[in-house]
Design goal:
With 285 residues, the chain is an alpha/beta fold. The protein is built from nine helices and ten strands. The chain has a single domain, classed as TIM Barrel, CATH 3.20.20.20. 39% of the residues lie in helices and 16% in strands.
Protein backbone atom coordinates (compact mmCIF):
# COMPACT_ATOMS: atom_id res chain seq x y z
CA UNK A 1 0.00 0.00 0.00
CA UNK A 2 1.63 3.20 -1.09
CA UNK A 3 1.62 5.92 1.51
CA UNK A 4 -0.95 8.44 0.32
CA UNK A 5 -2.01 9.67 3.75
CA UNK A 6 -1.27 9.47 7.42
CA UNK A 7 -1.53 5.82 8.53
CA UNK A 8 -0.16 6.48 12.01
CA UNK A 9 -2.06 4.98 14.91
CA UNK A 10 -1.28 3.63 18.36
CA UNK A 11 -1.23 0.03 19.52
CA UNK A 12 -2.18 0.46 23.15
CA UNK A 13 -0.28 -1.75 25.60
CA UNK A 14 -1.71 -0.67 28.91
CA UNK A 15 0.06 2.46 30.12
CA UNK A 16 2.31 2.59 27.06
CA UNK A 17 1.86 2.20 23.33
CA UNK A 18 3.66 1.48 20.09
CA UNK A 19 3.23 3.72 17.06
CA UNK A 20 2.14 1.88 13.93
CA UNK A 21 2.05 3.03 10.33
CA UNK A 22 5.26 5.01 9.95
CA UNK A 23 7.61 2.04 10.11
CA UNK A 24 7.45 -1.73 10.28
CA UNK A 25 7.84 -3.34 13.69
CA UNK A 26 9.51 -6.70 14.29
CA UNK A 27 8.17 -9.11 16.91
CA UNK A 28 11.04 -11.45 17.74
CA UNK A 29 10.11 -15.10 18.30
CA UNK A 30 11.31 -16.85 21.46
CA UNK A 31 10.14 -20.45 21.77
CA UNK A 32 10.83 -21.69 25.30
CA UNK A 33 9.92 -25.20 24.22
CA UNK A 34 11.62 -28.52 23.44
CA UNK A 35 9.54 -29.22 20.33
CA UNK A 36 8.92 -26.11 18.21
CA UNK A 37 9.31 -26.82 14.49
CA UNK A 38 12.27 -24.51 13.89
CA UNK A 39 14.22 -23.97 17.09
CA UNK A 40 12.75 -26.38 19.63
CA UNK A 41 15.17 -27.16 22.48
CA UNK A 42 17.57 -24.28 21.79
CA UNK A 43 16.07 -21.91 24.36
CA UNK A 44 14.21 -24.17 26.79
CA UNK A 45 16.26 -23.06 29.81
CA UNK A 46 16.13 -19.64 31.44
CA UNK A 47 19.65 -18.40 30.73
CA UNK A 48 19.86 -19.23 26.99
CA UNK A 49 16.30 -17.99 26.53
CA UNK A 50 17.13 -14.71 28.28
CA UNK A 51 20.25 -14.23 26.18
CA UNK A 52 18.27 -14.84 22.98
CA UNK A 53 15.55 -12.38 24.00
CA UNK A 54 18.14 -9.68 24.70
CA UNK A 55 19.85 -10.49 21.39
CA UNK A 56 16.57 -10.05 19.50
CA UNK A 57 16.00 -6.70 21.22
CA UNK A 58 19.53 -5.56 20.44
CA UNK A 59 18.95 -6.47 16.79
CA UNK A 60 15.98 -4.10 16.71
CA UNK A 61 12.94 -6.10 17.76
CA UNK A 62 10.20 -3.80 19.06
CA UNK A 63 8.96 -6.67 21.21
CA UNK A 64 9.72 -10.34 21.93
CA UNK A 65 6.99 -13.01 21.85
CA UNK A 66 7.60 -15.70 24.48
CA UNK A 67 5.88 -19.05 23.96
CA UNK A 68 5.86 -22.09 26.22
CA UNK A 69 3.83 -24.48 24.07
CA UNK A 70 4.58 -25.42 20.48
CA UNK A 71 1.82 -24.74 17.95
CA UNK A 72 3.40 -26.68 15.09
CA UNK A 73 1.20 -29.27 13.34
CA UNK A 74 0.91 -32.35 15.55
CA UNK A 75 2.18 -30.56 18.66
CA UNK A 76 1.84 -32.14 22.09
CA UNK A 77 -0.28 -29.98 24.42
CA UNK A 78 1.22 -29.09 27.79
CA UNK A 79 -0.52 -28.27 31.04
CA UNK A 80 -1.11 -24.72 32.24
CA UNK A 81 1.27 -25.36 35.12
CA UNK A 82 4.07 -26.51 32.80
CA UNK A 83 3.53 -23.63 30.40
CA UNK A 84 3.74 -21.15 33.28
CA UNK A 85 6.87 -22.88 34.59
CA UNK A 86 8.52 -22.40 31.20
CA UNK A 87 7.64 -18.79 30.44
CA UNK A 88 7.39 -16.83 33.71
CA UNK A 89 11.03 -17.19 34.82
CA UNK A 90 12.18 -16.09 31.35
CA UNK A 91 9.93 -13.02 31.35
CA UNK A 92 11.18 -12.09 34.81
CA UNK A 93 14.83 -12.60 33.87
CA UNK A 94 14.59 -10.54 30.69
CA UNK A 95 12.92 -7.65 32.50
CA UNK A 96 15.51 -7.75 35.25
CA UNK A 97 18.17 -7.23 32.58
CA UNK A 98 16.15 -4.79 30.46
CA UNK A 99 13.19 -3.25 32.33
CA UNK A 100 12.09 -1.34 29.22
CA UNK A 101 11.66 -4.50 27.12
CA UNK A 102 8.20 -5.09 25.67
CA UNK A 103 7.34 -8.77 26.00
CA UNK A 104 4.40 -10.69 24.57
CA UNK A 105 3.02 -13.98 25.84
CA UNK A 106 2.12 -16.48 23.12
CA UNK A 107 -0.67 -18.51 24.73
CA UNK A 108 -4.32 -19.46 24.41
CA UNK A 109 -4.81 -20.19 28.13
CA UNK A 110 -6.17 -17.58 30.52
CA UNK A 111 -4.14 -18.70 33.59
CA UNK A 112 -0.91 -18.62 31.57
CA UNK A 113 -1.71 -15.16 30.25
CA UNK A 114 -2.49 -13.92 33.77
CA UNK A 115 0.78 -15.29 35.18
CA UNK A 116 2.80 -13.86 32.30
CA UNK A 117 1.17 -10.44 32.63
CA UNK A 118 1.85 -10.45 36.37
CA UNK A 119 5.50 -11.18 35.52
CA UNK A 120 5.56 -8.18 33.17
CA UNK A 121 4.24 -9.20 29.72
CA UNK A 122 2.36 -6.39 27.98
CA UNK A 123 0.83 -8.22 24.99
CA UNK A 124 -1.28 -11.37 24.74
CA UNK A 125 -0.79 -13.18 21.43
CA UNK A 126 -3.48 -15.85 21.05
CA UNK A 127 -3.31 -18.18 18.03
CA UNK A 128 -6.97 -19.06 18.64
CA UNK A 129 -8.11 -15.45 18.70
CA UNK A 130 -9.82 -15.77 22.12
CA UNK A 131 -12.01 -18.57 20.70
CA UNK A 132 -10.41 -21.48 22.59
CA UNK A 133 -10.46 -20.14 26.16
CA UNK A 134 -12.75 -17.10 26.17
CA UNK A 135 -11.63 -16.19 29.72
CA UNK A 136 -8.34 -15.02 28.26
CA UNK A 137 -10.20 -12.03 26.83
CA UNK A 138 -11.26 -10.96 30.32
CA UNK A 139 -7.69 -11.34 31.56
CA UNK A 140 -6.40 -9.10 28.78
CA UNK A 141 -9.17 -6.55 29.35
CA UNK A 142 -8.70 -6.37 33.11
CA UNK A 143 -4.94 -5.96 32.77
CA UNK A 144 -5.18 -3.54 29.84
CA UNK A 145 -2.69 -5.40 27.66
CA UNK A 146 -2.35 -5.23 23.92
CA UNK A 147 -3.70 -8.27 22.10
CA UNK A 148 -2.89 -10.06 18.85
CA UNK A 149 -5.80 -12.18 17.62
CA UNK A 150 -5.09 -14.84 15.01
CA UNK A 151 -7.49 -16.68 12.76
CA UNK A 152 -6.88 -20.40 13.25
CA UNK A 153 -8.08 -22.68 10.46
CA UNK A 154 -7.52 -25.85 12.45
CA UNK A 155 -11.07 -25.64 13.80
CA UNK A 156 -12.60 -26.27 10.35
CA UNK A 157 -16.32 -25.94 9.64
CA UNK A 158 -16.18 -22.78 7.52
CA UNK A 159 -17.22 -22.16 3.92
CA UNK A 160 -16.35 -19.56 1.32
CA UNK A 161 -13.03 -18.17 0.16
CA UNK A 162 -10.05 -18.11 2.47
CA UNK A 163 -10.28 -14.32 2.83
CA UNK A 164 -13.94 -14.63 3.79
CA UNK A 165 -13.03 -17.29 6.36
CA UNK A 166 -10.35 -15.06 7.86
CA UNK A 167 -12.69 -12.07 8.12
CA UNK A 168 -15.50 -14.12 9.69
CA UNK A 169 -13.14 -15.53 12.27
CA UNK A 170 -11.74 -12.09 13.02
CA UNK A 171 -15.27 -10.72 13.47
CA UNK A 172 -15.93 -13.36 16.12
CA UNK A 173 -12.61 -12.73 17.88
CA UNK A 174 -13.08 -8.97 17.90
CA UNK A 175 -16.61 -9.35 19.26
CA UNK A 176 -15.34 -11.54 22.10
CA UNK A 177 -12.57 -9.07 22.88
CA UNK A 178 -14.76 -5.97 22.87
CA UNK A 179 -17.50 -7.62 24.96
CA UNK A 180 -14.85 -8.50 27.54
CA UNK A 181 -13.72 -4.87 27.66
CA UNK A 182 -10.62 -4.92 25.47
CA UNK A 183 -10.14 -1.51 23.86
CA UNK A 184 -10.25 -1.34 20.05
CA UNK A 185 -6.85 0.38 19.97
CA UNK A 186 -5.33 -2.58 21.84
CA UNK A 187 -6.15 -5.03 19.01
CA UNK A 188 -4.06 -6.20 16.08
CA UNK A 189 -5.12 -9.08 13.83
CA UNK A 190 -3.19 -11.99 12.31
CA UNK A 191 -4.57 -13.94 9.29
CA UNK A 192 -2.97 -17.19 10.47
CA UNK A 193 -0.65 -18.24 7.66
CA UNK A 194 0.05 -21.97 7.98
CA UNK A 195 -2.60 -22.71 10.60
CA UNK A 196 -5.01 -25.14 8.97
CA UNK A 197 -4.44 -23.63 5.53
CA UNK A 198 -3.32 -25.16 2.26
CA UNK A 199 -0.32 -23.86 0.33
CA UNK A 200 -2.67 -22.22 -2.17
CA UNK A 201 -4.65 -20.58 0.62
CA UNK A 202 -1.46 -19.20 2.12
CA UNK A 203 -0.65 -17.59 -1.24
CA UNK A 204 -4.19 -16.19 -1.47
CA UNK A 205 -3.85 -14.68 2.00
CA UNK A 206 -0.58 -13.03 0.99
CA UNK A 207 -2.20 -11.67 -2.18
CA UNK A 208 -5.19 -10.45 -0.17
CA UNK A 209 -3.38 -8.65 2.66
CA UNK A 210 -4.43 -5.22 1.45
CA UNK A 211 -8.07 -6.36 1.39
CA UNK A 212 -7.68 -7.81 4.88
CA UNK A 213 -6.21 -4.51 6.05
CA UNK A 214 -9.50 -2.87 5.10
CA UNK A 215 -11.11 -4.88 7.92
CA UNK A 216 -10.13 -1.93 10.08
CA UNK A 217 -7.42 -3.13 12.46
CA UNK A 218 -3.61 -3.18 12.16
CA UNK A 219 -2.21 -6.45 10.85
CA UNK A 220 0.43 -8.81 12.20
CA UNK A 221 2.01 -11.27 9.76
CA UNK A 222 3.70 -14.48 10.87
CA UNK A 223 5.35 -16.35 7.99
CA UNK A 224 8.85 -16.83 9.39
CA UNK A 225 10.35 -20.18 8.29
CA UNK A 226 6.86 -21.58 7.67
CA UNK A 227 5.78 -23.84 4.82
CA UNK A 228 4.99 -20.89 2.54
CA UNK A 229 8.67 -19.88 2.65
CA UNK A 230 9.66 -23.34 1.41
CA UNK A 231 7.80 -22.82 -1.86
CA UNK A 232 8.29 -23.41 -4.70
CA UNK A 233 11.61 -25.23 -4.18
CA UNK A 234 10.76 -27.30 -1.11
CA UNK A 235 13.44 -25.60 0.96
CA UNK A 236 14.41 -27.00 4.37
CA UNK A 237 13.82 -24.82 7.44
CA UNK A 238 17.44 -23.66 7.63
CA UNK A 239 17.27 -22.27 4.07
CA UNK A 240 14.07 -20.22 4.35
CA UNK A 241 15.41 -16.84 5.47
CA UNK A 242 15.50 -15.15 2.01
CA UNK A 243 11.94 -16.27 1.29
CA UNK A 244 10.82 -15.08 4.73
CA UNK A 245 12.28 -11.66 3.95
CA UNK A 246 10.38 -11.70 0.64
CA UNK A 247 7.10 -12.20 2.51
CA UNK A 248 7.99 -9.38 4.90
CA UNK A 249 8.55 -6.97 2.01
CA UNK A 250 5.31 -8.13 0.37
CA UNK A 251 3.53 -7.51 3.66
CA UNK A 252 4.92 -3.99 3.92
CA UNK A 253 3.75 -3.26 0.38
CA UNK A 254 0.25 -4.37 1.43
CA UNK A 255 0.18 -2.27 4.61
CA UNK A 256 1.09 -4.79 7.32
CA UNK A 257 2.58 -3.15 10.42
CA UNK A 258 3.98 -5.97 12.62
CA UNK A 259 6.03 -9.00 11.57
CA UNK A 260 6.61 -12.00 13.82
CA UNK A 261 10.05 -13.32 12.85
CA UNK A 262 12.91 -15.49 14.06
CA UNK A 263 15.60 -13.49 12.22
CA UNK A 264 15.08 -9.91 13.37
CA UNK A 265 18.21 -8.26 11.97
CA UNK A 266 17.74 -9.48 8.40
CA UNK A 267 14.02 -8.74 8.23
CA UNK A 268 14.49 -5.33 9.82
CA UNK A 269 17.25 -4.45 7.35
CA UNK A 270 14.95 -5.23 4.42
CA UNK A 271 12.07 -3.35 6.05
CA UNK A 272 14.05 -0.12 6.32
CA UNK A 273 14.22 0.21 2.53
CA UNK A 274 10.75 -1.24 1.98
CA UNK A 275 9.35 1.36 4.40
CA UNK A 276 10.99 4.13 2.39
CA UNK A 277 9.46 2.75 -0.80
CA UNK A 278 5.96 1.86 0.38
CA UNK A 279 5.35 4.11 3.39
CA UNK A 280 6.64 7.28 1.78
CA UNK A 281 9.54 7.86 4.16
CA UNK A 282 12.29 10.37 3.50
CA UNK A 283 16.05 9.92 3.52
CA UNK A 284 18.00 12.09 5.94
CA UNK A 285 20.22 14.72 4.37
Amino acid sequence: MAADGDRSREWRLGETSLMLGDRSLMMGILNVTPDSFSDGGRYDAVEPATRQALRLLEQGAAMVDVGGESTRPGFEPVSEKEEIRRVVPVIQAVLQRDPSAILSIDTSKAPVAAAAIEAGARIVNDVWGFQSDVEIASVAAQCGTGVALMRNGRGGGEGGSILEKVKRSWATSVEIALKAGVREEAIVLDPGIGFGTTRQEDLEIMRGLAELGAFGFPLLLGTSRKRITAMPLGLPVESRLPATVATTVAGIAAGVDVFRVHDVAENLRASLLADLIYRGGQLDG
